[in-house]
Design a protein that fits this description.
With 190 residues, the chain is mainly alpha-helical. The protein folds into two domains: 1-48, Homeodomain-like (Arc Repressor Mutant, subunit A); 56-189, Tetracycline Repressor, domain 2. The chain is 77% helix and 2% strand. Helix 1 crosses helix 2 (30-37) and helix 4 packs antiparallel against helix 5. The relative contact order is 0.11. Keywords: DNA-binding.
């Protein structure tokens, strides 16, 4: 894909997010997207078969972004790298706030099959579980690793959504660090 195609796709995706901030997805037409992206309808169809494929591409992009953002922090936590982990929670907040408008719009979208929170949650839970299993970590007292991954995932996602709604807050960052550290210091034993 050449640079023009990449820019066009980015413009189309940004146009959709802009329109989602103004109206319901069902009311958005291909013509609306094309007009907002300043392209022709045929150019839209060169990139996406319909608006659902476009929305899926946007959701996949931001799910991948959120997963990458949090995977690095999970790895620091599990490596017991306290300094890197503590700095990384504040870094998560900064990254979220840099994309606040887009992420807020996507988290607010109420359309079956296109739920950013659910997509991120499924992938993040799988990552927590995979890391715990691959490192051969055990849980003590006996607690299913799926429970640990569910709780940890919910903490991170709630932190992200709270930060998007209220901004960066040192107390919430500190609280998340303490909660995740408590979970992993007390429950996971190498």
């Amino acid at each position: 894909m050449d640079l023009r195609q990449i820019k066009t796709e980015r413009n189309i995706q940004q146009a959709l997010v802009q329109l989602l901030s103004e109206q319901d997805f069902e009311k958005i037409t291909i013509a609306d997207i094309a007009k907002t992206a300043q392209i022709s309808r045929s150019t839209f169809y060169d990139h996406y078969p319909d608006k659902y494929a476009l929305l899926d591409a946007v959701m996949n992009y931001y799910t991948d972004y959120l997963l990458t953002l949090t995977e690095q922090r999970i790895d620091a936590l599990l490596a017991r790298d306290r300094v890197a982990f503590e700095a990384s929670i504040a870094d998560i907040a900064d990254h979220l706030l840099a994309r606040r408008q887009t992420l807020s719009v996507l988290f607010a979208l109420d359309l079956p099959g296109y739920d950013l929170r659910d997509r991120w949650k499924q992938r993040l839970q799988a990552h927590w579980h995979e890391v715990v299993e691959s490192k051969g970590l055990t849980v003590n007292p006996p607690t299913p690793s799926s429970y640990i991954s569910d709780v940890s995932t919910d903490l991170l996602i709630n932190f992200a959504q709270w930060t998007l709604a209220h901004g960066k807050n040192a107390a919430t960052i500190d609280q998340l660090q303490k909660l995740l550290s408590l979970i992993f210091d007390q429950l996971i034993v190498n």
